Amino acid sequence: QVQLGESGGGFVQAGGSLRLSCAASLPSFSEYNMGWFRQAPEKEREFVAAISRRGTATYYTDSVKGRFTISRDNTKDTISLEMRDLKPEDTAVYYCAADGRGRTAQAMTQGRYPVPNEYDYWGQGTQVTVSS
User: For the chain, which ranges sit under pLDDT 50?
Assistant: First the structure.
């Protein structure tokens, strides 16, 4: 079975911090690039951050760079997203996703961020709400 499950979302004031976690059940976790996407009300799902198979490379969308940190633990089949200095604009449902085809790096090489259809598996999302 393949399953991803996010946790750690919540309601915080601007400037606060949250840590999201994703537990993954995959055929071979360490062979997947992993990412976080988010979707705000009336917005399309957008890329937030990604991490390579061994965790040696990370990618971030410009709006979160310097505030969010993605990490993975291949001994526990988990990834995390540490978010600090949260802003109201960060309010969204955050999704954990797995890329088994190496399209994350391919997208970056092409000068763009990954899009949702380049990821193979998805969690159900966790809500992050940031108030001003």
Answer: none
